[in-house]
Amino acid sequence: MTGLDIAVTGLGLVTPGGVGVEAGWAAVRAGRSTAARDPLLAGHEVTISCRVPDFDADALLGARRAVRLDRFTRLALVAAREAVAGEDLATWDSARVGVVIGTSAGGGETFERQHGVLLADGPTGVSPLVLPMHLPNMVAGQVAIEFGFRGPNLVVSTACASGATAIGVACDLLAARRCDVVLAGGVDALLNPLTMAGFARMGALSRRDDPATASRPFDVDRDGFVAGEGAAVLVLRRAEDARADGRRVRARVVGYGATADAHHITNPDPEGRGVAAATRAALADAGASASDVDHVNAHGTSTQLNDLVEGRVLAELLPSGPLVTSTKGVTGHLLGAAGAAEAVFTVLAVEQGVVPPTANLTTLDPRLDLDVATAVVPRGIDLALSNSFGFGGQNAVLAIAKA
Fold first, then answer.
1. How many Å apart are CA 235 and CA 27, to the nearest integer?
2. CA quadruple 202, 327, 14, 138: dihedral positive or negative?
3. Nearest to residue 398, comparing CAs of 23, 15, 24, 6?
4. Spatial separation of the C-alpha atoms in residues 6 and 240, rounded to whole Å
């Protein structure tokens, strides 16, 4: 490997599969859809979502703390706590610890709720905490406050690529030796009525009658994504430092590619040029060739155009045919959290030597020449790619290698 060599030494996860890495990974391995009718969307055009089950913020964070935080920050803090569990934070040089979190929109729940208060009660009814709860940067700020980390503190927003972009930026900070440790990840909690109405009006969401089969990446009958919520945080260090300290390395981030389509506000470039360029950049960073890739955790949203473009690029660039998975068949689309959660799933696939299934794939789109896993496949994985793309033509690809 000639480029990045960043060790993953901690993982934290909150997804519709449950709270914690173990619960989320078990759901993905089982290929069990988490989509359900959402009572908060009653009366909407689309009433399906993937919510985090049994998330008791008061119990997990304390009622006094939780009430002052938007849901997106609550999710991120719980994931961050799991990621650093078992670490002796007193031994960390807090000035050398950074936080980089990706989110597509910040505290949407708070913003929508407080706008309702403004309309009903006037300006004096609005909470003085509306901005500290809503502003996107506050999620990284709250993580830093939680643990006393005083290094670079950043939030990045590249739509549904945000979580993967955050990991890439964190790797750059470590490679440049601006930090010794970085907590990096993504979060979104946007299953509020306004956001969901917007997705529905643009025709992005699945309208299938059965929630359990609505998200069906790469299937010929796919008709849109299912929106979800969640958070994922990874603890990253330079691999040389992790080895010197005798730390357990779960996997390594060895490449990162980021590009823009410069094509359309929502649709990908039909030629896939930006996706292909990001893939090539990640492989070049890793000093790897296409034949070295054993597994791809695809972006695989279950929308017609995105799956078609991504699938064609994968088939063209990786003719050796690595096993492909889209975990969105289980989790739905976690928006700004998707890239980070899928990086966690990729780390686990590499670490455990298993490729998880793509839920609800009954008939592969005949236009795609892909080897898509539909059941758990034991396989040694030396190198995997994790793809994330977003509105505005944002592309981010991570190359993740065995420890």
1. 22
2. negative
3. 6
4. 8
Polymer length of the chain: 403
**Letter for the amino acid at 99?**
V
Helices (H), 87-230: 108-121, 130-134, 138-147, 162-175, 193-201
Verify whether residue 333 is a known catalytic residue: yes
Given the residues 134, 171, 179, 299, select the one marked as catalytic: 299
At 101-158, the pLDDT tens digits run 999 999 999 999 999 999 999 999 999 999 999 999 999 999 999 999 999 999 999 9
Q: Is 215 exposed, middle or buried (0-12, 13-18, 19+ CB in 10 A)?
A: buried
**Which residue in 50, 160, 171, 179 is the catalytic one?**
160
Residue with tokens 């290929």: 31
Instruction: Name the helix (H) or strand (E) containing 188.
Output: strand 181-188
The enclosing H or E element of 231 equals strand 230-238
* Pairing status of strand 295-297 against strand 383-390: parallel
